[in-house]
Amino acid sequence: MAKVEGHEHPTSAHCEEHGEGHNVTENGKLVRHSHHSEAMKNNLTSRLNRIEGQIRGIKGLIERDTYCDDVLNQIAAVQSALNSVGRLLLEGHMKSCVIERIQAGETEVLDELLVTVNKLMK
């Protein structure tokens, strides 16, 4: 059971499986948690580590006065890699968190999702 908006609420089977509740109150404030599988966490972490290395590489290119077009192409590669991470997270979010919240009657999640998608598409 997790405390949700002042009352006890059974966590979903998926959340119980991962030992987490979605809408847990901490210090009187609503805190949401994701519940990614270990495989997904490893995939995302690996991708982000590669992106981190690419960013360091771009910094080095600039410090070495590398031709601008070459630097811009590396920046485009990093942006593409970040977009891929965002797409993976968005897919997982829609298939788990969003569905669970809609099933719980929390349709305001759709407005939250639209704001997030608009930010990703900028």
From TrEMBL:
Recorded hits in InterPro entries, A to Z, give: Metal_Tscrpt_repr, Metal_Tscrpt_repr_sf
Pfam family, any one: Trns_repr_metal
Source species, domain of life: Bacteria
Protein name listed in UniProt: Metal-sensitive transcriptional regulator
Q: Please name the source species.
A: Paenibacillus timonensis
Region Disordered, annotated ranges: 1-23
